[in-house]
Write a structure and sequence with these properties.
The structure holds two protein chains of two kinds.
Chain A (H helix, E strand, L loop, with lengths): L5 H8 L5 H11 L4 E4 L6 H15 L8 E4 L3 H18 L5 E4 L5 H9 L4 E4 L1 H8 L4 H4 L5 E4 L2 H5 L2 H16 L4 E6 L5 H9 L7 E4 L6 E5 L19 H10 L3 E4 L3 H14 L7 E4 L5 H12 L5 E4 L14 E5 L5 H8 L10 E6 L5 H13 L13 H13 L5 H9 L9 H13 L14 E2 L5 E2 L3 H10 L8 E6 L4 E6 H5 L6 E4 L2 E9 L2 E6 L19 H12 L7 H16 L7 E9 L2 E7 L4 H18 L3 E6 L4 E5 L5 H6 L8 H12 L2 H11 L21 H11 L4 H12 L4 H13 L1 E6 L8 H4 L5 E4 L3 H6 L1 E4 L11
Helix pairs in contact in A: 2-3, 3-4, 6-9, 15-21, 15-22, 16-18, 16-26, 23-25, 26-27, 26-28
Chain B lengths: L1 E4 L2 E5 L5 E3 L4 E4 L6 H7 L11 H12 L4 E4 L10 H13 L3 E4 L8 H6 L3 E3 L2 E3 L2 E3 L10 E4 L4 E7 L3 E11 L2 E3 L10 E2 L7 E5 L4 E7 L2
Parallel strand pairs in B: 4-5, 5-6, 6-7, 9-10, 10-13, 11-14
Antiparallel strand pairs in B: 1-2, 2-3, 3-4, 8-9, 11-12, 12-13, 12-15, 15-16
Classes of the chains: A alpha/beta, B alpha/beta.
Amino acid sequence: MSATSIDQWFAEQGWKPLPFQKKTWKAYAAGKSGFVNAPTGSGKTYALWGGIIQEALAKPPKKGVQALWITPLKALAVEIQQSTHRMSQHFDPKWKVDLRTGDTPSAARAKQRKRPNFGLVTTPESLHLLLGSKEHKAYFSNLQCIVIDEWHELMGSKRGVQIELALAYLKSFLPQLKVWGISATIGNLDLAQEILLGADAEQAVRVVSLRKKTIKVKSLVPKNMERFPWRGHLGLHLLNEVVKVVERSRSTLVFTNTRAQCEIWFQRLLEAHPDWAGQMAMHHGSMNKETRLWVEEALQNDRLKLVVCTSSLDLGVDFSPVESCIQIGSPKGVGRFLQRAGRSGHQPGKASMIYFLPTHAMELIEALALQTAIEQQIIEDRIPYLNSYDVLIQFLMTLAVGDGFSPKALFPILQNTFCFQTLDPDTWQWCLNFIRQGSQSLENYDEYKKVTVDENDCYRVANRSIAMRHRMNIGTIVSDADLLVKYRKGGFIGTIEEWFVSKLIPGDVFTFGGKNLKLIKIQNNQVLVKKSKAKKAKIPAWMGGRMSFSAHLSELLRNTFYQLETSNSLESKALAPVLTQQKKQSLLPRAEELLIETFPSREGYHAVFYPFEGYAIHMAMASIVSYRLSLLAPTSFSLAYNDYGFELVSDRPIDLEGLLDNNLLSATDVLEDLKTGINVSEIARRKFRDIAVIGGLVFQGTPSQPIKSKHLQSSSQLFYEVFKDYEPENLLYQQALAETFDHGMEQGRLMQAFERMNTQEIRWVKTHQPTPFSFPLITDRLRAKMSSESVEDRIRKMYLQLEKDLSDGSTH
Amino acid sequence: MEVPINQHRMLLLPEGAIYWINTQTLLIADAHLGKVTHFRKNGFAVPPQIQFSFYKKMDSLLATHSIHRIFFLGDLFHSARNAEWDRFVKWNQQCSIPAYLVKGNHDILSQDLLAESGLEVVDEWREEGLLLSHHPKEQTGFFNLCGHLHPGVRMQGKGRQRLKIPCFFHRPKQMILPAFGDFTGLFILQPKANDQVYALGEKSVLPISLRKK
């Protein structure tokens, strides 16, 4: 029994099309591209797929893929493939929808390639792999539409750049292709649409789903305000409050910021409520796929009361039994917080309920700001990447391993993307030289091999192992190298990020997969462990990424702060003892004041500045101010920053008189000093890591397929150093410097921040010990450095710590 | 900086080499010549200029010290033969100072090639109570000079200062040399109470003080 129209099919399901769905079908039928602004779970899939089906009903599809659906997550891809396939089958059994992700077996992929079906649901990485295959133009020749789902998730990442490139490229040989984006609400929605639809944006249609979900936010604040910790990232002091929420909700998701935090919370909740065993589960990216799928299914089927998770459950299928969400510690962004809140309250008529659990006192201010932001619908922007040469070089290689490309034809296509709109012929030539010669000058002694150019100026990869290596490396998500965790006596437990393990030494106990494990040794990319009965485990601090505060949000945070004393909220009451202590030791700055605190400690001399401009601006400010100070006299600084302020630490008193007398907070030359500052401080080193992998400079293989030839092993760090010394003009190195500040903040905002600081009265307070405000900063382990001393002078002041005696644990 | 080893006077040089004063001998470990080209042949765009840093350093060392003999303590050449080998052979023949290669795990070039180069190839070398080798070794009655590890240390100081730097790692019966090559990386070592560490500064070598945890 086949349905003959979308309306009929909806009626058969007992549904009534929503206005935004009808509007989408109409626009689609008119051959338009468009942009759907709708949250997850609003029926957006049928809005688009309905249009695609209608088109096929009107005009019988030719052979080949008609519709491509791109989604950021594998888990989402499965869900969408199932629902679009099911729907299509009602109309014509021949209309099948395939799924193609990194998990798809190669036999299935080969079959899809040979006999393409009606629809294909895939990820940005798999799409690029298709573009890197031979005769892909024929494969796509009947493509009518490409849908980019969850564009807000992709846009601020380099996967967004991959999408831009793929779209511009597809449109170059499919001029009639319809492009549709789906995005949740973000601060810069118009820009999001413009980037995705490019030149078509003007004629494109914007469809808005009006269904708004009510979101309720509540802070979990302890009864005993005196004991609220000044620092910390675990939040376990509020365990009982979490238990209470879980007890009164049908099902609860507890969101944590790291896998380690996730493990600890799971254990402690289980200890607090042993009777919940069997009704509670954990979900994070290191766990194996089967377990994760089981958890998702059990959650869906109402069999779980509680799941402790990480961002691994941010997106994806809706779990209707979930009544409450709890966010442990700062969500680092309103958008992410809303996304997580939206995972609850899917029963009709219910609101989404999210509890915010501040892990230390200063996060209470963030809790207040978050609530205001949600009330006023202020959501941060997703800042798109510009000039991501690493992604461009990867894309060039992708085309070169497929059918090859002609630079002349490709150049204008690239200029059509938002990311490479300012690409000039010189830079373009640089990129071509880079993949062809591996440098900018062709020397006759050189044996560089990667891409060859034939007599028709077509760039291709001839070498099979280079092609294979590239295919394995396509993608822009650079996670830390994962290591296999194994019992010493055999038995695989899971994979774990290298940085986590690098913080451990043999003998340390850590929690993984709900078990306490003792590290024996690390060998050949494997972490060998044994079970441990120890109660206490090591917990590395949060290293995750954070979203950038828009100008609005920084202002909001600032205002929240300046109004703390007059506010009547639960949070400000909880903060009162902390504020009193702060006033006793230092002061609470008013809007027209800039507070600077200096104090000595065992570690050295500290200077903490509080401009309240948000993380990214503070990072830039710290770099500029420390750079200017380092010009007064040879000095070395260690820098830390958060949303409230930044800290400089040195081994000698920080010359604040010099800073003020020489007007070193001036707005003049800010951008020049920023550039030099980044170079000296080597903050870009961390950025370069991803760039080196994406740009194909380092290749590490995967845990199951480690790089075969040991003679080809290197690290991004090594490349960073040699570029710095030998080839500082290298675009990938320059990109790391630019990304450090350009991505995530506009230079204009930095100027404004300096100008604002110059209108403020400086309140310099010399204290004897750290103040409550300074605490989260001075305990931050994630730091940058700035030095104008010679290496020799620095070495003279340093020392080495002796190795711990590991022979046994007894004292001598 | 000069360090006595038994009756020998050893000058630790900031380039990462040792000048053995008594015998006017230069000791070099882990030059990894050919690595740049090996990477480039496989499609990794390492800056090609790095391959000349070896010769720049050597020229300056030969100009400053009166060198009568050179010992390469292994991993002189990183991979199979490529153009960099020919350049080295040419240089070696021109410089006409007797040179010895104590073989390392990376030195996989054929005997014939090595023989043509003018290098004298040995597995290890004993001389006046000193044992020269590539891998760190222990042998009664000998002090071992070796490479292989690319030693580095992570130092810390007041004001949360941290620095990762290549070093000479001096154990009671052993001195591990830093890697001489410029595209080689570091392996971080943890000193014990009887060890002494000399860090490579820009223009000098400096001893580092040790502290108990």
